[in-house]
Structures are given as C-alpha cells and as structure tokens.
Design brief:
7 helices; mainly alpha; two-stranded antiparallel sheet
C-alpha cells in the first residue's frame, strides 16, 4: 500500500495560517479594549505632553487616542480579509482533496459509525463529537467572516445600516465562541497527547502517515 499523508499540506497550511490570523485578530481586540482604550490613553497623552511643556485639550487628546485605536482596528480588518480568503481556501479544498480526506466525508462517516455502534461506543462517540465541534467552527467562521465584511463595507451597504448594531453584536459574540473553541481545542489536544493519541501536534506539522 502506498503511504500517504494523514494531513495533506493544504490542510496543514490552512490550520497554522488560520491559527496565526485568528490569534492576531484576537490580539488586536485585546489591545483596543485595554492598551488603546480612549480614556486611559487620552490621560496618558495629556500627562506626557505636559511634562514636555505642551498643553492640549481633552478633546485633542481624545482625537490622538482615537487615531491610535483606528490604526489598530485597521490591522484587525486586514486580519479579517485574510480570514475570509482562508475560509474560501478551506471550502475549495473540499472540491480538490481525495474523497476520504474531505471533511464532509469524515463527518458523515463518523456519524454513521456513531449510529451503527450505538451511543455507548466510546471511540465512535468521541470521534463524532470532535467532528461535530469542527463543523460548528466552520459555521462560526462563516458567520464571523460575513458579519465582519458587512462592518468593513458598511458604507456601501447603507440600506442595511439599521441592522449594523445587531451585526456588530453577533460578530462580537462569535469572538467569545471562538475563544471557547480555542480553549477546548488546546485542552483536547493536551489530553490526547497524554493518552493513546500521541503525536497529534507533530502529525499536524509533518503530515503524519496514513495508508491509502
């Protein structure tokens, strides 16, 4: 039998690039909600300029803080564009991968095994739950991308301006769900590495080996 990679290069590229992009996006949100928050940064700007003998009004300091915050958000938007491209790339992979490596095949196969072996079969149940969580992630990323693009191009979507606040709320809520997924994912990988499923991380880096 010809040895093939358990995780093809395209999937590994998507996984690690997606990790970097989502991490960067979350970091920009953290920075803007803490470091560049307008109130403390405005006070800091005024204080530091006063030490140098320059006095500015609170409104001027707020303008500086707002400008810094906007620069960080611009980086967040670029991360969002990249995430949208990665999502399209992941969807495209489903059309060009081997049939047995497609996510939809693995999900449906896990569901069939779960139904055939019964809910008490531990391995089948675990496999199906993991695949279902990943399916939820793909759905979540789709919602985040669509809502994020709506906010990025809201000036071109003036007729839908009334729903902007709702879209922003959905986008923000999805961020917390992504954080929850990251925690669950890292915990799951850590536990798997300590049990019989060792080598998950190295396989996702090198590809691992499967049998075709």
């Amino acid at each position: 039998m010809k040895p093939v990679k358990k995780y093809p290069a395209s999937l590994r590229f998507w996984h690690w690039t997606n990790t970097i992009v989502i991490s960067g996006s979350l970091i920009t949100v953290l920075i803007n909600s803490t470091v560049t928050d307008e109130q403390p940064i405005s006070a800091l700007v005024q204080t530091e300029l006063q030490k140098s003998g320059v006095t500015i009004t609170g409104q001027q300091a707020n303008s500086v803080a707002h400008g810094i915050s906007d620069d960080v958000w611009n980086i967040h938007v670029y991360f969002g564009y990249t995430l949208a491209l990665l999502l399209l790339f992941r969807i495209g992979m489903e059309f060009f991968q081997r049939a047995d490596q497609k996510f939809i095949f693995k999900l449906s196969n896990a569901y069939r095994q779960f139904k055939l072996t019964g809910k008490k079969q531990k391995h089948a149940k675990h496999t199906f739950i993991v695949k279902a969580i990943y399916a939820s992630l793909y759905g979540l990323l789709t919602i985040m991308v669509i809502s994020g693009l709506f906010l990025a191009f809201e000036d071109l979507l003036a007729p839908f301006k009334a729903i902007r606040h709702s879209v922003k709320e959905v986008h923000g809520f999805c961020m917390y769900l992504v954080l929850a997924f990251i925690i669950v994912h890292i915990t799951g990988v850590f536990l798997a590495e300590r049990s019989t499923d060792k080598g998950i991380i190295s396989d996702m880096i090198s590809g691992g080996e499967d049998r075709a």
